[in-house]
Design a protein that fits this description.
Blueprint: H1 2-24, H2 28-65, E1 100-104, E2 112-122, E3 127-132, E4 152-158, H3 167-170, E5 176-182, E6 192-193, E7 198-202, H4 210-225, E8 233-237, H5 241-251, E9 260-261, E10 269-276, H6 295-306, E11 323-327, H7 338-348, E12 351-355, H8 363-371, E13 375-379, E14 395-400, H9 405-418, E15 422-427, H10 444-447, H11 449-453, H12 457-465, H13 474-490
Parallel strand pairs: 3-5, 6-10, 7-8, 7-10, 8-9, 11-12, 11-13, 13-14, 14-15
Antiparallel strand pairs: 1-2, 2-3, 2-10, 4-5
Helix pairs in contact: 1-2, 7-13
């Protein structure tokens, strides 16, 4: 069709030129020049249309035959591009071009977005705005807005919390808007300007449970912030003052600056780079193949955060009686014969410290007790998260109640081994569970816990987590503790 039009117009123009030559004589020379100019313009137009058609053909072919084809992997619409699949950390904002807003939504646990350029916060609208220079020459007339301040080039939304797959808790997390728009001519001021990047994240959700505080928050924050070498500002959504008090020593190891409370801060804070959301690898785990960070580095960070003040004597138990810290539970999954367990451990040769942590217990106190111990002993539950305070090559003994084998191994057993600890999972027998005296011995609750767990988390929580205590078989436990004690002196 293009070629037909081209030759049709060529023949038509030649006839018009001859006709004008005969009619107007010498005056036709000017008209001929005009027609030749029109001819050249139309010729260029046809060439442009041909090239456009050729370019589109490549795109269509890539979609039809599955060829990899992309103009830019950092564009906000590059939905199929995944840094998780590449087994590397997402790019830090400094590696992106100015004016970029990019979101990686490929991970099932979390979304994470990156911004670079003229970034400004607007807490009243729960927005972070990236302003770009206007370029009316490059835009079609029909696309040029009459009010630049109202025209959005891009608009992403994100809930910066690392339990993306869990709809119930994500419904409680504040949503934040990431908007790219033209720079306004006026009212474009900064109340506070920062020359270091920002990381935006939420401390909502399950914050209040120590497992989730570390797994969903502190460890992902460590992974995400390591690349900035403490030259980064944390901007916190759904801020809790008690959370900051509890973790301020850890935060001081990650950032040289006080955090900004996003929701209650009406000032416009300006940044040149920003990361919104946190990177997470697995349960209480840092995969060194995906990041420059690693779990031993995180353990060393905790050591720096809670190290004993100068002049304070720390007792060394090496080559003496090994020290065992017993995490005592109140309520469900408590050890009903705890006193007898303590006496047995002491008789075998352990110095036993009973630790009863609660929400008001300072993290430094818990760290000191556990980091100075050789063995940590406890029943499956959130408090087992404190195994992170043990030194490498120490021993973690986790008592596994009925129906909790999978979460015990997934949330604490495997992560402990990843950290270089010696891990022992003590699976109780039905007779050691309080459920033994509530149900018939042939009841699936005792005989086949997996069938009960398949009914859903609600059943697991109601039966095995909230309604079960443990009475340990001390003869079985004695064999275990003897093995741990002997191993201490042979390491």
């Amino acid at each position: 069709m293009v070629y037909f039009q081209k030759y049709y117009y060529k023949d038509h123009h030649q006839r018009q030129i001859r006709k004008l030559d005969e009619t107007f004589g010498c005056d036709s020379k000017n008209i001929k020049e005009d027609l030749r100019l029109i001819k050249r313009v139309k010729s260029k137009l046809f060439h442009l249309l041909y090239l456009s058609f050729l370019s589109c053909s490549f795109i269509w072919l890539s979609q039809i035959f599955g060829f990899p084809f992309s103009f830019s992997c950092i564009h906000h619409g590059a939905e199929n591009f995944s840094y998780e699949k590449l087994s590397v950390d997402p790019p830090i904002a400094s590696s992106l071009s100015i004016g970029t807003l990019y979101c990686d939504r490929s991970h099932f646990r979390t979304d994470i977005c990156f911004m670079k350029g003229d970034i400004r916060t607007n807490s009243s609208s729960s927005s972070i705005i990236l302003y770009t220079q206007t370029n009316t020459k490059a835009a079609p007339l029909s696309d040029i807005p009459t009010k630049f301040e109202e025209y959005e080039l891009e608009h992403e939304t994100i809930k910066p919390y690392t339990r993306k797959w869990e709809t119930s808790v994500m419904n409680t997390i504040d949503q934040i808007h990431l908007i790219s728009k033209y720079k306004p001519i006026s009212h474009h001021k900064c109340d506070v300007s920062h020359d270091v990047p920002a990381i935006f994240f939420s401390t909502g959700g399950y914050t209040g449970n120590v497992y989730h505080e570390f797994n969903d928050g502190i460890i992902p924050l460590y992974i995400t912030s390591q690349q900035f070498n403490k030259e980064v500002i944390f901007v916190i959504l759904e801020y809790h003052s008690w959370w900051y008090t509890k973790y301020q020593q850890v935060l001081a190891q990650l950032s040289n600056y006080r955090p900004i409370i996003f929701n209650s801060n009406s000032k416009t804070h300006c940044f040149q780079e920003a990361v919104v959301g946190l990177k997470i690898h697995d349960e209480l785990t840092i995969d060194s193949s995906l990041s420059k960070a690693n779990i031993i580095g995180f353990r060393n960070l905790l050591s720096r955060a809670f190290e004993a003040p100068k002049g304070l004597l720390v007792v060394n138990h090496y080559n003496k009686r090994p020290r065992m810290v017993l995490l005592s539970r109140r309520g469900s999954r408590g050890i009903t014969n705890e006193r007898a367990l303590v006496k047995l451990a002491q008789k075998i040769g352990f110095d036993v410290l009973i630790l009863k942590p609660n929400r008001k217990t300072e993290l430094a106190t818990i760290y000191k007790a556990i980091s100075n111990s050789d063995v940590m002993f406890g029943v499956h539950g959130a408090a087992m998260t404190h195994f992170l305070f043990l030194n490498p090559n120490c021993t973690l003994v986790q008592v596994i109640p009925l129906g909790t084998e999978w979460p015990s191994e997934t949330y604490y057993g495997q992560p402990a081994k990843n950290m270089g600890l010696k891990y022992i999972g003590y699976k109780i027998h039905p007779r050691e569970s309080s459920l033994y005296y509530k149900y018939d011995k042939d009841d699936p609750i005792l005989r086949d816990p997996n069938s009960v767990n398949k009914k859903g988390w609600e059943f697991t929580k109601k039966v095995y987590l909230d309604d079960q205590n443990v009475r340990l078989d001390l003869r079985r436990v004695q064999k275990l503790l003897l093995r741990v004690h002997d191993d201490y002196f042979t390491k």
